[in-house]
């Protein structure tokens, strides 16, 4: 029963809509790795059929991740979610405080908004990397997820994809912050702040900051989806998930 509950939790790891269209189909995921996971249902967990259990695990991973990606990639996916909203970098918080007092509240607000818009533009790219991680899942990976805690599947994805996601996100973030005005707003804020006597020059790699925060938010939401599915059988939204996790 405990392993079935653990399996159920995995269904919270992917998103829907356009993000789902970017993911490999379940049949494609099973073409690589499914046959390499025999005996997964041993001990009475799952459907009792190893290939079906493998398919169910992979579908759970796909469905949950889709949900997280789709939720974050829509307008205000980051900006409107206080759990993942990208805030003013701590290293230049004094810049923002001085700017606000000097009557530049709008510039500060525009700067924060534009960082979040850049994250929303980059996050759909995660679907491809998550799909690769699902395809490449090994027997040990699956066993570890089954035996793990509330966010074991999320940590699996983070370990497999973090570096590649950062490398893929950063150019998109860099381009988007220019398009939506984050860089201009940042330079304007910094320029005004540095004119204040005795302040000195400020430094921040804006692209690295936004990329890192975008990934932090992504994995936080993937983890929330995983925990939701572990606790709520109603989140098993396909026949396969119900068959594998509903026993």
From TrEMBL:
Signal peptide extent: 1-21
Superkingdom, taxonomy of origin: Bacteria
Keywords per UniProt: Signal
Database matches in InterPro entries: DUF4197
Protein name: DUF4197 domain-containing protein
Organism of this sequence: Zeimonas arvi
